[in-house]
Amino acid sequence: MEVTKLVVLPAVLAFFVLCLHFMTRMARLRNLNLPPGRLGWPVVGETLEFMHAMVEGNVLRFLQERVEKYDSRVFKTSMFGNPVAVFCGPAGNKFLFSNENKNVQVWWPSSVRKLLRLSLVTKVGDEAKMVRKLLMNFLNAETLKNYLPKMDRIAQHHIDTYWKGKEQVFVHPIVKLYTFELACCLFLSIEDSAQISKFSLKFDAFLKGIVGFSLNIPGTRFYRAMKAADEIRKEIKMILEKRKVDLEEKRASPTQDLLSHMLLTSDPSGKFMTEMEILDNILLLLFAGHDTSRSVLSLVMKYLGQLPQVYEHVLKEQLEIIRGKEVGQLLQWEDIQKMKYSWNVVCEVMRLSPPVSGAYREAIKDFTYADYNIPKGWKLHWNTNSSHKDPTIFSDPETFDASRFEGAGPTPFAHVPFGGGPRMCLGQEFARLEILVFMHNIVKRFKWELVIPDEKLKYDPMLEPVKGLEIRLHPSSS
Ligand code: HEM
């Protein structure tokens, strides 16, 4: 009798309360005019269909099928155990980007949140603003331009080491060595190649487990990613502890890299980031800061290999820059400003093949969009593929045409490879510099053609060529 009172009755009561809560929620949802769409199987929802579209590199088809069937402005689905409203086109992007902290807030699936713990991506509101400001002090153009000669030197050394003298290379694995080396050097002052390659191997496991179900059991991608994240944090912690001593004893400089900057900069109230926050933010920036740019560089190589007239135009622009410089002089800020056509090419590459497929927000209150009710707590998704191929904005959308970005460029909120609004990518300027520096160095030294011209692309989690993009290299006569 006692056991019944102590265990069974509370359990029955809890079950009853849960059922009541569920039924009230369902009744409330039934009375709402929710966006049309399909929630799919319980818990799994349409996650598997979405992940399959990512792996097939055909997210556009996933979106188009639903847009045609339901509504071109917004439709509902369910991913990672949550109902999700997918906001489409520039209007959807505009709504999500301009409603941060009003109707919506940034949200990432639990795999991302568990791996990146206390970093910026899990912060919202004023706390996020503060962290962004602090990181932006290092990632803004004014600061980064001081690192430009260093970037150029790293690019030249990279090409001498991995490209020079080769007849054939796999682009995707080797450009990773460039973007990762740059991030290690500028964020942590690691310059030893052996240490960088060991570190980069740990990142592979981390990257492959960041998007998906967060099942932390041996054998899953997520389990391996969690283990890798712990090991990476341990390595960064060792560097951090040594740096504190070096800074105190004036062996390290306050401006030498992002780590010194994070240790020495406080918010306006005088508060410094905790050690754990520094570790998680460096982990975030190392991850966000190299795999995305690596994806863009592989895709730039693919399009330049396929389109000789675009390659020639980029080469012409880069040779003019070289002509204005003394032999051996490293790239300067003014040189980057002259790379207008090259940057338009990168923008067009990112339009046709966006490296990041999209991101998420959460409804922080009930609101209405396009006449539909969006309940508080729903997750909201915007996808780069939704507006980038819209023929009403980009005429003949499948054709490569860098001139779309001349003058005022495309209509606002249509070209969104870096997202938008208060949570827009923090590393846009860093990415622009590392991509242009690489393009400058590669086109002046090589021409190339693709071994598999129609090689497919997949998101894993960034867009990448499925076979690593093998190319035949020819040293350039220019
Ligand atoms: C071409 C390369 C890159 C692309 C296409 C890209 C794209 C994106 C996108 C789509 C988002 C989500 C924005 C949103 O939710 O509205 C994002 C966020 C972010 N990116 Fe990038 N990114 C690139 C390079 C970088 C680099 C080099 C860094 C760091 C040095 C970086 C750091 C970040 C950070 C910290 C966030 C989170 C911002 C926040 O939550 O407030 N990204 N990026």
TrEMBL record:
Transmembrane stretches, start-end: 6-24
Annotated Gene Ontology cellular component terms: membrane
Keyword Oxidoreductase: yes
GO biological process assignments: sterol metabolic process
A GO MF term: iron ion binding
Compartments in which it is found: Membrane
Originating species: Vigna angularis var. angularis
Top-level lineage group: Eukaryota
Family according to the record: Belongs to the cytochrome P450 family.
CDD domains reported for this sequence: CYP90-like (cd11043)
The name this protein goes by in its record: Cytochrome P450
SUPFAM superfamilies for the chain: Cytochrome P450 (SSF48264)
Keywords assigned: Heme, Iron, Membrane, Metal-binding, Monooxygenase, Oxidoreductase, Transmembrane, Transmembrane helix
Membrane topology classification: Single-pass membrane protein
Residues holding heme: C425
UniProt cofactor(s): heme
Principal location: membrane
